[in-house]
Amino acid sequence: MLEVKNLNVSVGGRKILDDLDLTVRDGEVAALMGPNGSGKSTLSHVIAGRKDYIVETGDVLLNGENILNLEPDVRAAKGLFLAFQYPTEIPGVATVTFLKAAFNAQRKHRGQEELSTPDFMKRVKASAKRLEITQDMLKRALNAGFSGGEKKRMEILQMALLEPSFAILDETDSGLDIDALRVVADGVNALRSPSRGFLIITHYQRVLDHVVPDTVHVMAQGRIVRSGGKELAVELEKSGYRDYSAEPAVA
Amino acid sequence: MNADIIPARTPAEIFLARAFDASKTVLPGNTDVAKWREASLKAFNASGLPHRRIEAWHYTDLRTLMRDALPLATAPVAATIDALRKEFAAAGALARRLVLVDGFFVPELSGGLPEGLKVRSLASVLTEGRPDLIALLSSQDLAAQDSIVSLNAALMQDGVVIEVAPGTAIAEPVNLIHVTASPAPAANFSRSALIIGAGASLRLAESMHVASRAETVRAGQANACLIVSLDNGAKLAHTAMVTGTAPGSVRLETVMVRIGARAKFDSFALVAGIGLVRRQMFVRFEGAESETSLSGVSLLGGREHADTTLLVEHMAPGCVSRETFKYILDEAATGVFQGKIHVAPGAQKTDGKMLCKAMLLSDMAAMNNKPELEIFADDVACGHGATCGGLDLDQLFYLQTRGLPFAQAEALLLEAFAGELVDGIGHEGLIKAYRREVSAWLVARHGQRAAPCAVIT
C-alpha cells in the first residue's frame, strides 16, 4: 500500500507538489492523469528517491513505513518499483548483467540468498518470452540504442523479475504503437495481484482500456483535484484537461 | 614553447651524472656504444630532468616530482633467480615468456617461445655491436631531444631484442614480464627492441611482477624504452599492464614505433596502482596505408600521477590512426593526457581521430587534457575531443531504483566506462585478465572508503 500524505515538494524555489494526498491500496490499480506540468512525474521521482527535489513537508508511506529518508535502492528492496518514462541508456553494461546485479542486490538486502546464474536465467527467459524480448536484446547494453518500445518492454521485464509490492508506471504507454501497448499491458495485467498496488501515470485513456483501473485521479497544479472510478478516464478523454489547466477546480 | 633556462642541478641530476661516471666502464657495449652513451649523457646534462618549462613535460614536472635518484639496479643473483623460478612455477606463470628482472634479461626464467622468434639480450647486442641493430636501437629521433630517452641511452643496462622472421604469424601472446626483485629500492634502465619482419605478426603482452621478497621495497625507479620497427605488412598487437608498483615509485616508459606500409600497430595500456607513471609514445607512419590504434585506461587514486603523452606522425598517405584514452581519477590523483597528431605535407587521405575522456570522482582530483592536431596536408579527416566530468546522475539514480546500492551502481558504471576500451584488446584471455584488474581496482577502492550509500534512518 502506498500512502502519500500532505506532500509539499519544490525545486529551485518553485512549488511542484502542493499538499498532495493519495492512497493506493494493495491490489488496487490507480490511474493518475492530468495535463503536462501538473507534477505527475515529479511525484513518481520523489517517491522513488530522486534527490533533486526538496521535500518541504509530508510523508510517503510504503506498506506503512515512511520511506522518504531511505536511499532509492533501499526503497526498491522494500518493494517499490518505478518504470521510467524515459528509461536511461547505460552503455557498456550488458542488460543481463544488470538484471542479475539488481535482482541479487535486492535479495541480499532482504537477507535472501542470491540466485545462481542458471536459476536466474530461467526466470529471465520465462518473463522475456512473454514480453517478446529476444536473447539478443538481453546481451546488448542496457537500453542503449533500444527503440522506444523495447525500452518500455524492458522496464516491464524488470518489474516482472523484481516482483515489487508497489509499482509506479510513469507514462509507460507513451510512444508505443498499438501492438507494443498490448504487449506491455498484458505484462502489467499478468502482475496484478491482491498483494500488489499500481499507480499508472498516463495522459491517455487508451492504456486504461487494456489495464482497467480501479480508481482514477486527476492531478493539476501539484495536487489531486478529482478522483473517481474508471469512467472518469473516459470522461477526460472527451472533455480534455481544459477544466483543470487554470486554477484547480473544486473537486 | 620551451624556455631556455639552465637551472641549478637538482640532487637527482647530480646523482645520475655521478652514477654514470661510476658505472660507465661496466655498462655493456663496444667503443662505439660507449661514445653513444657519453653523447647521450652530455645531452641529458645539458637539459637536465624535464620540467614544466619543457612543453612536452609541462604537467609532469620531473625536476620537482623526482627529487632524488636511486642507485642503479644490479643484475639479479642466482638465489634471486632461483626464488623467482619457484614463484613462477607455484603461480602457474604465463607460458611464452621473456623475463626482465630489475631491467636485466634472464634467459633462465624465460622460455616457451614460438618458432620464428629470435631473442637476444640488449647487453649482448651492444657488446657484439651488430651495426643494423645498433642503428635501430640508437635511432631515437622520433623522441627528439627528450632528455629521459637520452638518460636511458646513457645508462641502459640491459633489455631484450626480439626479431620476428618475415612471414611468421604468432597469434598467442608472447609475454614480456618486468620483475622488481631488488632487495632495496633501485633505479633500472632498460632498452628493448622489437623488429617485426615483412608480413609477420606478433602479440606482445607486457606486465609487471613484484617478487614476493621485494614486496616491501617496490618504490623503485624505472626508465624503460621500447623501440619497435614494423616492416611492410607487419602487425603488432601490444598490451601493457602497468600495475603493482607503490607510492613513491617512478616509472618512465618510452615507446618509439616506426610503421612501414600496409602495417598495423595496436597498443593498449592499463595504468593502475602506481606512484608516478609517464608513458610516452612516438609513432611514425613511414609507409602508406597503415593503421594504428593506441588506447589506454588509467585508474588513479591517492596522490598518484599518470601521464600519457603521444605523438603520432603521419608522414605517408592513406594511414589511419585512432587514439582513445580514459582516466578514472579519485582522491587527489592527477591525470595527464597530451596527444598530438601530426600530418606531414603529402600525407593525404590521413584519417586521424583522438579522444580522451576523464571521469573525476573527487574534487581534489585533477585532469590535464591536451589534444592537438598539426596538419600540413589538405585532404585529410582528423578530429579530436576531450571530456572531463563526473558520473551521470541519471544513470546512477536509475540503477539505484533497481536496488543497486550507490557503491555498486557506481562501480558498475565505472567498469563499463573502462571496460569499453579493454574489450577492444581483441584477445579473450587478455580481455579477461585486464577486466579482472579493473574490477580489483574498483573493489579495493570501495574497501578503502566508507560506504557512501549508508542508510539514513
Short synopsis of the structure:
The complex is a heterodimer of chains A (about 250) and B (about 450). With about 250 residues, chain A is of the alpha/beta class. Helix content of chain A is about 40%, strand content about 30%.
Describe the structure.
With 251 residues, chain A is of the alpha/beta class. Chain A is 38% helix and 28% strand. Chain A is built from 10 helices and 12 strands. Chain A has helices at 40-48, 72-77, 95-109, 117-130, 135-139, 148-162, 178-191, 206-210, 231-239, 242-245; strands at residues 2-11, 14-24, 29-33, 54-62, 65-66, 80-83, 90-94, 141-142, 166-170, 197-201, 215-220, 223-228. In chain A, strands 6-9-10-3-11-12 form a 6-stranded mixed β-sheet, sandwiched between helices. The longest helix of chain A has 15 residues, at 95-109. The model of chain A has no long low-confidence stretch (mean pLDDT 92). Chain B is of the alpha/beta class and 457 residues long. Residues 449-457 of chain B have low confidence and may be disordered. Chain B has a 10-stranded mixed β-sheet, with helices on one face. A 9-stranded mixed β-sheet of chain B has the order 3-4-6-8-10-12-14-16-18. The radius of gyration of chain B is 22 Å and the shape is globular. In chain B, 52% of the residues are buried. In chain B, strand 1 (97-101) and strand 2 (104-105) form a beta hairpin. Chain B has 10 helices and 19 strands. Chain B is 26% helix and 35% strand. At the A-B interface, helix 2, strand 7 and helix 3 of A face helix 8 and helix 9 of B.
Strand content of chain B: 35-45%
Rg on CA atoms of chain B, Å: 22 Å
How would you classify the helix and strand content of chain B by structural class? alpha/beta
Query: Helix/strand/pairing class of chain A, anyone?
Result: alpha/beta
Helix content of chain B: 25-40%
Summarize the helices and strands and which ones pair or pack.
The complex is a heterodimer of chains A (251) and B (457).
Chain A (H helix, E strand, L loop, with lengths): L1 E10 L2 E11 L4 E5 L6 H9 L5 E9 L2 E2 L5 H6 L2 E4 L6 E5 H15 L7 H14 L4 H5 L1 E2 L5 H15 L3 E5 L7 H14 L5 E5 L4 H5 L4 E6 L2 E6 L2 H9 L2 H4 L6
Parallel strand pairs in A: 3-10, 3-11, 6-9, 9-10
Antiparallel strand pairs in A: 1-2, 1-4, 4-5, 7-8, 11-12
Helix pairs in contact in A: 4-6, 6-7
Chain B lengths: L10 H13 L7 H17 L14 H4 L12 H14 L5 E5 L2 E2 L11 E5 H7 L2 H8 L8 H9 L4 E5 L9 E7 L6 E10 L4 E10 L10 E10 L4 E8 L7 E10 L4 E9 L3 E10 L5 E10 L4 E10 L5 E10 L4 E10 L7 E10 L5 E10 L5 E9 L3 H9 L4 H17 L5 H21 L9
Parallel strand pairs in B: 1-5, 4-6, 5-7, 6-8, 7-9, 8-10, 9-11, 10-12, 11-13, 12-14, 13-15, 14-16, 15-17, 16-18, 17-19
Antiparallel strand pairs in B: 1-2, 3-4
Helix pairs in contact in B: 2-7, 8-9, 9-10
